[in-house]
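Escalation from tier 1.

The customer reports that the assembly of two entities below gives different structure tokens on two consecutive runs. Tier 1 could not reproduce it. I'm attaching the input and our single run for tier 2 to review.
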Amino acid sequence: MDVELGYSLQPVSLIALLPHAHFLLHSLSPSSCLAMCSQDIRNTVGNIPMEWYKDYPHIGYDLDGKKIFKPIRTKDELDEFLDKMENPDYWRTVHNKMTGTDLRLSDEQVDLVHRLQQGKFGDVNFNEYEPAIDFFSSEVMIHPVTNRPEDKRSFIPSLIEKEKVGKLVHAIKMGWIKPRRPKETAPKYYDLWAQEDLNTVLGRHKMHIPAPKMRLPGHEESYNPPPEYLLTEEEKLAWEQQDPEDRRVSFLPQKYSCLRAVPAFSRFIHERFERCLDLYLCPRQRKMRVNVNPEDLIPKLPKPKDLQPFPTTQSLVYRGHTSLVRSISVSPSGQWLVSGSDDCTVRFWEVSTARCLKTVEVSGAVKSVAWSPNPAPFLYPSPAFTLYSILYMKQVCELGAVEQRAVRPFHCIRISVLCGSQTLLVYICEYRAVRQVTWHGKGDYLACVMPDDNSSLQVVIHQVSKRRTQNPFRKSKGMVQCVSFHPIRPYFFVATQRYVRVYNLIKQELTKKLMANCKWISSMAVHPGGDNVICGSYDCRLAWFDLDLSTKPYKMLRHHKKALRGVAYHKHYPLFASGSDDGSVIVCHGMVYNDLLQNPLIVPVKVLKGHTITHDLGVLDVAFHPSQPWVFSSGADGTVRLFT
Amino acid sequence: MSQLQARFFTENKKYAIDDVPFSIPAASEVADLSNVINKLLEARIADHKHVEFDFLVRGQFLRSSLASHMDTENISTEEVVEIEYVQKFTAPQPEECIMHDDWISSVEADSEWILTGSYDKTARIWSLEGKAVMTMAGHTDVVKDVAWVKRDGLSSLLLTASLDQTVLLWEWNSEQNKVKARHCCRGHAGSVDTIVVDPSRTKFCSGSWDKMLKIWSAVPTEEEDEVEEPNRPRKKQKTEQLGLTRTPLMTLSGHNEAVSAVLWTDAEELCSASWDHTIRLWDVETGEQKSMLTGSKVFNCISYSPLCRRLASGSTDRHVRLWDPRSKDGSLVLLSLTSHTGWVTAVRWSPSNQHQLVSGSFDNIVKLWDIRSCKAPLYDLAAHEDRVLCADWTDSGLILSGGADNKLYTYRYSAYVSDAGA
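Tier 1 run:
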């Protein structure tokens, strides 16, 4: 039992009891003298909320009109708690709001509180269940309590009722009141979906898969099937020995003389059950099959017809060489073609007529020729000499000569070519086998490749105007296949067997290393814009690098059947060509856009055939005409061909 | 459809027949129609001799059966077909084959003499019978073009242009058979590929690989022009100088690539074809470009016919194209004649017939065309064994062609029906 709870429920009655308790407890012990002194103080403020005195030092006024001061009370929450824990009489201590003091209830007071809480009378001695006499019971006594006769009104009909009934009858007559509800004529059942739109139904059943239909009964199910449907004895035996799943029909066809003789179908429940299982378990799933048209996977490329002009037919054949034509080069004006061959000659051709105007014999097989890109003649410093065209060629020499000539590995010979004023400058390296020469776009520098796996002197750069030669690389990074100058910026491309390294010639550092993804690079060409490079390789691939994009090839073209030997870009037209050992030159449209967001468009447009394959070698070099969309190719059959 | 209604007519009064429609078999070809006309003529004229005729349906030569021709030309077979007939052009008769030492780069003939330029650095004069008359050796490189300037009695002036960047003006005396280089025209910075003399015979124009056209005086004088280049004289001392140096009167620049052919359309107008895919018309007086015709291929050669006022061009494809030089910029090709299989390197209009032209090509064949039959030529002159480089057609009806097989062929082409084709 919780005393505090009880106290809080009935504070008024308890307080009301307190004066009696005071008289009961009067002069009990000297210890309670202080309490008694305080008991004399009777607050006269009345039944008011004591919070009104919250802010005052007094709590009310006594009978004499003096202030009753609040007892000094220093109990805080902690003291309260300690008191609660330690004081055994805490539960019977109550706070008198009127005086602000604590009272300890006596046992009688607590008992009284308990009684009141239980709803009992405060007086202990009061018996609430004393015996009672039942005067008005159901038992009829011989002497009624009252003997009054019945009223007259209990025998005559009630007028008020008659009036009420008359009113109702009148109302029914007038039709104000319907005596009975009319019967509902609407049908009890109706088509719930009668009003529904067909389209919404279809929409709801978009994914509807109809249940598998049951096969309609055939002749076998007939009670009187044709005799060919009836099973013979062996067939019956075989049917019984089969697993139920393997049976063609789940029942034995039987013949009855008349429909009356047909017994009830014994497997009816079984069959219905199986049907339900079929409906329930049949896989109602729609498989999403991705229907891809294989033609959609091919990228949308423009038709070659729309990408004209590009070379389409063989127009001229430049005949004269007796051996492989290793290299060709076209003069910047487009008037002359020079070709170097294994028959130790360099020939000059007039492009428009295929006339060989000059043949220069040299002492070794010519591996590479390159026409100076400088169209204007420039003065050669030491002798007053006009230099029109410069070629480079390779001379094979004995190894014994290397030491002797090591002091001066390069020297040049001038040969008068074409007209009197035009001069062929022949650099001869008697040092090692030269593979390739290439010009810088301005025509002052030329680079020469002498592949050697071990030597650091694989690439040399000559400056023509100062007659100076330098070796740009201190270390060998593998066998150099070909080199090329960047057309605009001071970059230098060096292709080794698998990689193309891009060097910055001014900073003298490696800028980029392009992974060609092929076994052995054979040739390389730099786009005139300078941001794209193509590499041909001996494993039939052509890799297009976009230097802005990545160091991996942007496109790999595998349209040649044999090793590629030469690749070339056109200077103005968006064309590039590749020549291969399969005897064909493939011309591709390679459009490079100024917009950085647009990747180059590469479309193979034409396969040019003409060269005959000699000793398993087909086309050895390709070159574009500088101004026309024409491509030249030189082949192992000793011819140079022009395709326009 | 087996029968067609046809009405025949001709402009040659000699072979005129009645103007009535005939019903002729649709499958009939040129020979059948020719027989029909001959039969009619025999019935009309007692002493008629058999003549081969050629037939034109709406200005197009009949080259297949009548039905198929009308089918391809979209001519209705319901109506009466108007068929014009002309006497058949006889094939050019080969006359001479003149052997040279080297490739023949150019040829120009007049009524008496043939002038050829060759890759052996010489130009030669031949008689029409094929007799070598004169050899002019003076160029240090291949002679690319030659031209007659004029003839005063026995002495003639002629021009040779060469790869050595000069044009030489020669004076040739046919009586004494002596030749003298009068002027050496210097100024081009590339090989001079083409020269042409103006109608007044006092000027000539040259086109070069240095993209320039230069106009020079063709009148021989005794003075030498001053050369502007300061370092030239030193050079001149080295090389032997042939004739007096001459400098151009005017330079026309505008082409972006080499000039491959040049001609005068009249006294005041110059026409040049170039490797930059354009044909440009120039006003000679002002030196301004008047108009431009743009093609899609490199032009190798052009020819102009004052009779029909058409330009014919040969380019580095298989077609001979006809242009109207008077139309505005970007004009369309009027017609293309397609039968060659190689680059067309020479075209030349007939000087007398406005419908005919001759073309030479790298497929070794010279073709004689009538522009009314653009699908097939009139005749193929397949004498050359190598590429044809040049062709000419003289006023006297001589067709000449020279090529890389070192041979110059001449054909006599009877111009008897020059009026019939009109």
